[in-house]
Structure formats: structure tokens, C-alpha cells
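Render this sequence as a predicted structure.
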Amino acid sequence: MASKDIYFIPEPSQWPIVASLALFTAFIGGAMILNQSPNGKYVLILGAIGIIYMFAGWFSSVISESLAGNYNEQVDISFRMGMGWFILSEVMFFAAFFGALFYARVLSVPWLGGEGHGVVTHQFLWPAFKASWPMAVMPNPTNFTAYKDTVPAFGVPAVNTLILLSSGVTVTFAHWALKKAQRTHLCVWLAATVALGALFVYLQAGEYHHAYTELSLKLSSGIYGSTFYLLTGFHGFHVTMGALMLAVILFRSLKGHFTKNDHFAFEAVAWYWHFVDVVWLGLFIFVYWL
């Protein structure tokens, strides 16, 4: 048991080195695929296996340290500060993409159309340009893919909004159950949250398939296509990671981990999940609706 006045320092770990090697291998594999190398997919798979191994091993080490009672109040405070800074970095990550969307829609498109200075700047390079959003007329059909329509807001996106908001409620119910030491309710509400997260990803994958095959909306479909896939794609990745983290918390809860007074791992994942919910509300409003 760690002393209350001694900060716990873990033993030297191999996991940062394993993580660096696995990520570098995956990066090389992805680069090989982009350069049409026939062996790229095998290198990427090898890197992915290394990443999964790293996460499993590192999680196991941290969980073992926690169960051994090595973490005191000082460690808990540092964990909370670290998670807070991590979420702030994620906020700034999405702020950059929302900023790019704002710049394209509100500033650059009107400027190119001559708004504010009376000069039509596109008349020589792109005579067919229309200063309106989304930009459905492509400047060069050889390099840009025209799309048939935008993705409607009040379809799958609206359903996914309801799903994510509901998952925020279920994870909160799970937290309340944990603080009341109601293990069964905790596991039930956590399982519901994981299921809602998986359903969100499934529906978004179907939406992508519809947009790509039937609407011809691609990354090469001008600024609308690139901002749409970058914003929604990165958010979908975050939902996937959040659902996996919640699944780990559910597994630990089923094994009897966490108490009503000691459960920061649960709180950290819940913070992350609520962050994902808030980002989606911004996406629904500014990417799909307006």
C-alpha cells in the first residue's frame, strides 16, 4: 500500500518503446499502401497487431498497479490533470477543423465571389464559380469529382444525434449507480452505452456508403467533400475509441473493479464520452444542418 505522502513512481516500462515501434510500423505500412506497394497491407496489419498488443499490455500494467493500491491522492490528482489536458488537446484538434470549415464557408467563398471588394477574383481561373455553399460546381472535372447532393441532416445524422445524446444519459446513470454501489445497474447502463456507441458507428458507416456510392460524395469532391469526411470521419474514430474504452470499463466492472470512492478510470472515460457528444452536436449543426 502506497504511503499517503509518497508519490508513486512506476518501474521502467517497455511499453513506450513498443508503442513507438508499432506506430512507426503502421505508418510505414500506410505509406506503402499509398504508394501502391503490394506488401503494404501486411506491414500495416503487423503494425496494427503491435498497437493492439501495446494497449493490452499497458492497460494491464496500469490496472495491476491500481489494484495493488499503489495510487494515492497525489497520483489521482495528476491523472485528472493529465486527462483534462488531453481533452483540451482534443478540443483544439476539432477547433482547427471547425475553423477551416468556418473560413471556407464564411470568408473565402464570399471573397472569391467579389463580396466586400467588388473584384470578381475567379473570372479567369474558374468562370463557372458560384459563391454559394456547398460548392457543387467543380473547377476541374479531371481532378475533382462532382457530387449529386449533400447529406441531409434529418435522416441518419438526426438519428445518430438522438443515439449519442441517449448514450450520454446512460453513462451518467452508470456513474450514479457506481456511486451508490449498485453493481448490476452499473453494468447494465454501461452495456447500454457501449451498444449505443456501436450502433452510432454502424449507422455512420451506412451513411458513408450511401454518400460515396449513390451521391458520389468523395474527398475529391471539393471543399465540401473534404471537410465533411475529415470532420465526421475523425469524430467517428473518436466514437469508436470511446466505445472500446467503455467496453474495457464494462469488463472491469463485471470483474468487480472500482468502488464508489475510487473509480477515476470510469470518470476519465465518461469525460471523454461527454466530449464526443458535444463535438457531435457541433457537427450536426454546422456540417449537416446549416
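Summary. Residues 1-71 form a domain with the Helix Hairpins fold (CATH 1.10.287.70). The CA atoms of residues 170 and 189 lie 5 Å apart.
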